[in-house]
Amino acid sequence: MPKIEITWKDGMRFEGVPDSGHTITMDSAKEHDGTDMGARPMELLLIGLGGCTGMDVVSILKKMRKHIKNFKLNITAERASEHPKVYTTISLEYILEGDMEEKDIERAIDLSQQKFCSASAMLGKTSKITYKYKLLKTGAGTP
């Protein structure tokens, strides 16, 4: 069972320390009594989604014995006009460089979203999540 300790630091800055012991700073903008030095809690949800699905896709491709030279994931999200704290749409774009086929990437993304990424399952209950990818063949450039 995960355990996270949240400590108030000053103004609107908080630090979270999960079981791993790594400190995560959460904050708000200066106009809201923050220091503007940390991630916003809603941004952390998107970072969690990106980390979860990113690690899944790379791991699945490696298990398929595909060579990955570079990987990047871009995430954009839109908030509801009536409730700006809720994301209505989340778009993920995977950019991969390596020796693989498009069907391999599609399979890895599908497996991540359908079976492995718990952040995607959770956020998908309130948001429409879309996925696309760009494949750069090895030597074609860096994502």
Helix content, binned percent: 25-40%
Shape: globular
Instruction: Tell me the CATH topology of the largest domain.
Output: GMP Synthetase, Chain A, domain 3
Looking at CATH, the homologous superfamily of the largest domain is K homology (KH) domain
Radius of gyration: 17 Å
Tally of discrete structural domains: 2
Layout of strands and helices, then pairs:
Elements (H helix, E strand, L loop, with lengths): L3 E7 L2 E6 L5 E3 L14 H23 L3 E13 L7 E13 L2 H15 L1 H6 L4 E10 L6
Parallel strand pairs: 5-6
Antiparallel strand pairs: 1-2, 2-3, 4-5
Task: Describe it.
- The protein is of the alpha+beta class.
- The protein folds into two domains: 1-39; 41-137, K homology (KH) domain (GMP Synthetase, Chain A, domain 3), CATH 3.30.300.
- 31% of the residues lie in helices and 36% in strands.
- The strands form two sheets. Strands 1-2-3 form a three-stranded antiparallel sheet, with no helix packed on it. Strands 4-5-6 form a three-stranded mixed sheet, covered by helices on one side.
- Strand 2 and strand 3 form a beta hairpin.
- The longest helix has 23 residues, at 41-63.
- It is globular, with a radius of gyration of 17 Å.
- The mean pLDDT is 89.
